[in-house]
Amino acid sequence: MLKNMLQLLENSAVKYKEKAVFSSKVNDKYTDISYADFFEKVKILISGLIETGIKKGDKVFLFCDNRLEWILLDFALQGLGAITVPRGTDTGLSEAEFIMEHSGSNYLVIENSKAEEKIKELKFKGKRIAIENGVKKCDFYFEKILKTGKDNFEKNKSRIEKLSSVINENDLVTIIYTSGTTGNPKGVMLTHKNFITDIVNAPLTLPVSDKDVTISVLPIWHIFERTVEYVMIYCGANVYYSSIKTFVNDVKIIKPTMVIVVPRILEAFYDKVQINISKMKGFKKALFNFVYKNSMIYFSLNGYIKKTIIFYKKANFLLSMIYGIIKLIFLPVYGFSRILFKAIKNVLGGKVRIVISGGGSLPIHIDKFFNLIGLRLVDGYGLTETSPIISLRDPYHSVLGTSGSPIKNIEVKIINSEGKEAAAGEKGELTVKGGIVMQGYYNNKQATEKVLKDGWFHTGDLAVKTYYGEVKILGRIKDTIVLSGGENVEPEKIETYINRSELIDNSVVIGQNQKRLKALVVPNKEKVMDIAANKKIAYKDYESLINLQEIYDQIKKDIDENVNSNPEFRSFEKIFEFTLIPETFKIGDELTQSLKLKRHIIYEKYKNIIDDMFKKK
Predict the structure, then answer these.
(1) Relative to the CA of 268, which of 53, 250, 307, 421 has its CA 20 to 30 Å away?
(2) Residue 93: phi, psi to the nearest 5?
(3) Under a CB-based contact definition with an 8 Å cutoff, are residues 94 and 64 in contact?
(4) Any idea what DSSP says for residue 485?
(5) Which positions ≥6 away from 262 have C-beta within 8 Å?
(6) How far apart are CA 230 and CA 239, in angstroms?
(7) How do residues 167-216 score in pLDDT, each as one tens digit?
(8) Minimal CA–CA distance to 76: which of 95, 94, 49, 104?
């Protein structure tokens, strides 16, 4: 068993030697670094960091986005026993100040002059390290540290060689501050053991090999992307650094075999496909719709037979036999769909075998779409507090609508309202025990004791287990809305269906202690203005446009179709009324880094509007 992360890197460097581990852009062209060279550079960087005075236990605030230097620093600091406190450069000044002060960070890494400008008012008395040379207020520059490390390597060599045997599995690697859907962010303390437990066990469900090539676009400081990159290193894969802006062009060059995304990226991809379909004419459109509809029937029948749909009781053998005969009718159309949908798959480079989704709830229509067109979509579940992977879907037996089965060597229980383990299909709080569970929240004993009880981490997530052991997440327990009639409503599912409309960017369901549900809806500005242009609607500005009855009625039509007329929802889960909000929800304000709603912020910001909505009779 691996003891620490430096040992993991060393083993991979020996095993995969000259194979590329990371590929990053230099002058707009990708340049590779091999496993052996990467490890060598980490050791030189450790030598340089020793000369800066960084030692075991020091906390280093990483104010930096995705780039090769981030991961080099990450491993080098782990090697020294220092503790990283990472954050993206889109973090606001007040949040950065809180995290630095609360964590006791005594070193600050600034990516570039642009990042420096964002925190120029920051009151920080520790040492500053700059990755790029344009940073003005700086004690050490990255390139200079590397040079110093090289010059002093022989002097520090024996110390560096002993590090992998000195670092303990329970030593801290990092303190990651949660994005804070409620109140100030909490500092999650993760150890070498936490990461290694996830890294070693995740590939037992998700097959990753040294033949795999993946593309990185998600924030590297975020636990999901960070752990996935560690898994790739462990398995000998090649990680390409890209960005949301250049992703579409980069996939054509890279031709990845695996793509790691959050659901919002998949939704944007799906929306573009739907727009292209809507632009089709005549026979071509009719053919596509016919093939899609009949392929979906085949896909659904096959899902019952292969048990890739949710079962809360044992599948009926006789029904499986009947479905097996019926599906043969649709088999020719399904076979043709493999050719028809190939063009959609090729948008991702043509070689993608697995798409991994995490960091948020995956809408079922997105799930079905990607699997139907032939992309194996692996959904996972976890939290920062669990390093993060708790469960993963098997790409070769992917049960749609779930987050898969718990990974090996951990325990998962769903506890019902009576404090007992829930039966299949019974709601309860998901709890987890094992090596992936954090040490606790830094300097926050009270918060730690609330969630860690007898070794079990209480996630606060409402979940059910299927008959065959997969986990389905229903939402946050604290997000549950209790209506005045005592009905419990999980808003996240309703919001997912509301957001299916191409006219809607985001939504928040409200109604705590009220008779009926209502919602705040953020329209898709571009789509709404397209309607105005096509229908020649006169308006003064965007805010006046969304206040027009015609726009309200168009959006209401979509909400009625997706929610209010949908048998998926009970009568008390219908949206009785909604208000259109002109401002798009932003990361750092109304949204967390993983695009989850900060409900408390939204409730506070729109309190007057919400109060007025419920004053109406």
Answers:
(1) 307
(2) -60, -45
(3) no
(4) T
(5) 218, 224, 357, 358, 359, 360, 594, 595
(6) 10
(7) 999 999 999 998 654 567 899 999 999 999 999 999 999 999 999 999 99
(8) 49
* pLDDT for the residue 543: 92
Nearest CA-CA partner of 334 in 395, 293, 364: 293
Kind and range of the H or E element at 257? Answer: none
The pLDDT value given to residue 182: 52
> What φ, ψ does residue 412 adopt, rounded to 5°?
-130, 130
pLDDT value of residue 399: 97
384: enclosing H helix or E strand: none
Residue 384, pLDDT score: 93
Task: Please give the domain boundaries of the chain with CATH numbers for all domains.
Answer: 5-167+221-227 (3.40.50.12780), 264-477 (2.30.38.10), 480-615 (3.30.300.30)
Secondary-structure breakdown of the chain: helix, strand, coil percentages, each rounded to the nearest 5: 45, 20, 35
What is the reported pLDDT for 345?
87
| Cα–Cα dist 532/523, whole Å | 13
Q: What per-residue confidence (pLDDT) applies to 123? A: 87
Alpha-carbon gap, residue 555 to 501, rounded angstroms: 8
- Judged on CB neighbours under 10 Å (0-12, 13-18, 19+), 283 is exposed
Looking at the DSSP assignment, which residues form a beta bridge with residue 463? 428, 473
Q: Of how many residues is the chain composed?
A: 617
Rg of the Cα atoms in the chain? 25
Q: How far apart are CA 218 and CA 198, in angstroms?
A: 19
Closest to 542 in 3D by CA, of 577, 584, 506, 502: 584
Pairing of strands 389-392, 405-406: antiparallel
Task: Name the DSSP class of 202.
Answer: G
Rounded to 5 degrees, φ, ψ at 85 are: -125, 90
pLDDT beneath 50, residues of the chain: 181
Cβ atoms of 379 and 358 within 8 Å: the answer is yes
Of 101, 102, 74, give the one whose Cα is nearest residue 442. 102
pLDDT at 360: 75
- Output the pLDDT for position 370: 94
**Contact yes or no for 490/477 (Cβ under 8 A):** no
Is residue 282 within 8 Å of 393, Cβ to Cβ? Answer: no
Q: Cβ(483)–Cβ(572) under 8 Å? A: yes
Tell me, what amino acid is at 83?
I
Torsion sign (Cα): 200, 204, 206, 209: positive
Rounded to the nearest 10°, the torsion over CA 88, 94, 95, 98 is: 120
Do 54 and 77 contact (CB within 8 A), yes or no?
A: yes
Dist CA 403 CA 474 (whole Å): 11
What is the rounded CA–CA span in Å between residue 555 and residue 504? 8
pLDDT score, position 245: 87
CA distance 552 to 568: 24
Tell the residue number behind the tokens 């004690």, with chain if given: 139
Q: Is the dihedral of CA 577, 580, 586, 590 positive or negative?
A: negative
Q: Is 467 exposed, middle or buried (0-12, 13-18, 19+ CB in 10 A)?
A: middle
- Look at residue 444 in the predicted model and tell me its pLDDT: 95
A 10 A CB-CB count for 433 gives 15
Q: What phi and psi values does residue 220 have, to the nearest 5 degrees? A: -70, -25
The residue type at 546: I
- pLDDT tens digits along 476-525: 788 888 787 778 788 988 999 999 999 999 999 999 888 899 999 999 99
